[in-house]
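Researcher: We're teaching a course module on how sequence relates to structure. For the next exercise, students receive a sequence and then see the predicted structure as C-alpha cells, so they can try to spot secondary structure elements on their own. Here is the exercise chain.
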Amino acid sequence: MLERAPEEAPEGERPPSGEVAALARVQDVLASPQAVKAARGLSHFGEHSAGWFALGLLGAAVDRRRRRDWLAAAAGVVGAHAASIAVKRVVRRPRPEHESVRVLVGTPSRLSFPSSHATSTTAAAVLYSGMTGRNLVPVLVPPMLASRLVLGVHYPTDVLAGAALGGVLGALLRRKLNRHS
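Model: And here is the predicted structure for the students to work with:
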C-alpha cells in the first residue's frame, strides 16, 4: 500500500501539529472520567453566561445596599458574552476537528474563537472580585479554560483570547462601578 505524504492526507488523517497537538495532549493528560464530568458541569453552568448571570442576581438579592452595582456587574457579564459572540461571527474560526481530538460535549455553534465561556467567566471573576473584595480570578478562570480544552471544543488560543476579552471588558466596567461607589 502506498502511503500519502502528510500534505496530501485528508484533514482527519494528518498527524496533529500546533494547537491541535497541544489540545490532544491536554486531553491525554487531563481528561479522566472525573475531569470530563466536572468540565461538562462547568460547560452547562457557563452556557450563554447563565450561571454567572444568576450569581450576579443572587448578589443583588443578598446585598441590597449595592444592588445596582450587582445588577450592573451581572449585565456586564452578559455583555461580555455578547461581545464574544460578535467576535466569533466576524472571525468564523471553526471548532477543532481532528481524529486526535475527542469532542465530549455539544455546542450551540460551530464557531470557536474566542471561547464565550472563557470570556464570560473571566468577566464574572473580575467583576465579582470587585463586589466581594476577594480575588476570584485564579479560582474561577483556570478551571473554566481547562474545561473547554478537556471537552475538545476550543483551541488553546480560543480560551486565552476569551479570557483576555473578558478580563478587559470586566476591568473597564469594574473601574466604572468603583468610581460610582
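Model: If you want an answer key for the exercise: Residues 67-91 form the longest helix (25 residues). The two ends are 72 Å apart (CA to CA).
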